[in-house]
Design goal:
CATH superfamily of the largest domain: NagB/RpiA/CoA transferase-like
Distance between the termini: 50 Å
Radius of gyration: 25 Å
Structural class: alpha/beta
Strand order of the largest sheet: 1-10-7-4-2-3
Shape: globular
Number of strands: 10
CATH class of the largest domain: Alpha Beta
Length: 457
């Protein structure tokens, strides 16, 4: 068991037994589920929309190399600048160089999981640059010193009382603030940051090849403020976010909002095609797009290529019984839940994160709720297969299952062992997993095979 394994199991054990944590998460996910049911009513044929979306993403990933070049050509034609980053270090260094060129000491940042992936806030802080989260959920998590709990709802695990206490501890506000009052405090603090920050940083929900556009979808308006007030805008986007055309947005925007938050469409949907033009009154003087690989090309292999279709709606997290029991932080990775368990071993190393592929009941609910019909649970099985073929499961586990297989395929061996021997062997082998949380297994004195033979005779 490596370090990541140990951390995962330790955190999972704590959260699985935390009834208050389960209550908060169940409450928030139920609100989400109720909203999604209403959101889906806008579709006359939801399955047709999902199939079309999957087909569009299939085309985009199959032609990803040419579409990325097309995006770069069109974006730079509008005055923007494109930076290709192969890994975290290259992305961090590119952002730092831009900050140094602008003498920036403060940046405002819209919600972006890819910036969490490259640990941007910590990196900028180490270099004397303050990075301020402007999304309310991210702002709450930043105040608390925690990473996002959920890829769409960063503070899902906190109640309104938790947030009020946090604001009291960190900002000196009244401990009994209502959600509206909490929001107004955050708004007051953040509005000042927009006007003083030299650089605004966003992610991107989609890249549009035909117009050279970066799409940002949000509900609070902080993305627009972060990208228009500062004189420099940096968008960091994973290369898998590509769509062939702006004409695909009428399909993808409603799917993202319906499956992400239960809305017909999110409040603010913006397409950035470059910096402010001379005829425009708003927007940055300069705009950069950093196209991040960071292991994404590892996902191009046939068995797991569908994982690149993900639009980060978070629906698989909300449907997963494992996620609902252990929470987002137990995974120890930027992307949690079923889709995170698929992609993290390939982004960050199979040896370190293979255990995430086993954090699944394989019930298939994640596949059922995916708006682009990604076969998530099958890819979790494929990850397990890869780990086994690469001999990453360790000698103890490998020899255990080899002996188990040999015994299960031999009626002679099964009949030779009595109930007492079976009880002792199985309960000893699985003492730290099964027995630690359940009653010990007790085999019947006579197996079905023996009972059948007696009946027949």
């Amino acid at each position: 068991m490596n370090g990541q394994d140990s951390i995962f199991f330790a955190k999972s054990k704590i959260k699985a037994e935390d009834l208050e944590h389960k209550r908060k998460v169940a409450f928030n996910i139920q609100k989400y589920n109720d909203s999604v049911v209403k959101g889906k009513q806008q579709y006359s044929d939801l399955e047709l929309a999902r199939r079309r979306a999957k087909n569009t993403k299939w085309k985009a990933i199959e032609k990803l190399d040419s579409l990325l070049e097309q995006f770069e050509k069109n974006f730079t034609a509008n005055g923007g600048k494109v930076i290709w980053a192969e890994n975290t270090q290259e992305a961090q260094e590119a952002i730092l160089q831009i900050c140094k060129a602008k003498n920036a000491r403060q940046v405002v940042k819209a919600k972006s999981m890819v910036t969490e992936e490259i640990h941007l806030n910590d990196f900028l802080g180490w270099n004397g640059i303050e990075s301020v989260e402007t999304d309310l959920g991210e702002y709450i998590q930043q105040l608390d010193g925690e990473p996002p709990y959920h890829i769409v709802t960063p503070a899902m695990h906190k109640s309104k009382e938790d947030v009020a206490k946090l604001f009291h501890d960190k900002l000196g506000t009244d401990p009994g603030l209502t959600p509206t009052e909490i929001t107004m405090v955050a708004r007051k603090n953040l509005r000042e940051k927009y006007t003083t920050a030299e650089i605004g940083i966003t992610g991107g929900n989609f890249l549009l090849a035909d117009v050279g556009g970066v799409c940002v979808t949000e509900n609070e308006g902080n993305g627009r403020l972060s990208s228009s007030f500062p004189r420099t805008h940096i968008a960091i986007v994973g290369i898998e976010k590509m769509l062939p055309s702006i004409n695909d947005l009428p399909l993808f925007w409603p799917l993202l909002s319906t499956f992400g938050t239960g809305q017909k469409v999110t409040v603010y949907n913006t397409v950035f095609t470059g910096p402010r033009k001379t005829t425009e009154t708003d927007g940055p003087d300069e705009m950069y797009v950093i196209l991040l690989d960071n292991g994404r090309t590892n996902l191009m292999r046939r068995e797991i290529r569908e994982s690149m279709y993900c639009i980060r709606c978070g629906s698989c997290l909300n449907a997963c019984p494992v996620y609902k029991n252990i929470g987002g932080h137990a995974y120890g990775a930027t992307y949690s839940g079923p889709i995170g368990s698929v992609i993290t071993p390939h982004l960050s190393g199979m040896a370190e994160y293979k255990h995430l592929s086993y954090a699944s009941s394989l019930c298939g609910n994640c596949t059922e709720v995916c708006p682009v019909k990604i076969n998530i649970h099958e890819m979790l099985l494929e990850n397990r297969n890869m780990a086994t073929r690469q001999n990453l499961n360790g000698f103890k586990e490998s020899i255990t299952w080899t002996l188990w297989e040999r015994a299960m395929l031999s009626r002679t061996l099964l009949n030779a062992a009595g109930a007492g021997t079976k009880n002792k062997v199985v309960n000893s082998l699985f003492q730290d997993t099964w027995v630690a949380h359940r009653a010990p297994l007790h085999f019947a004195e006579k197996s079905f095979n023996k009972l059948w033979k007696e009946r027949r005779s």
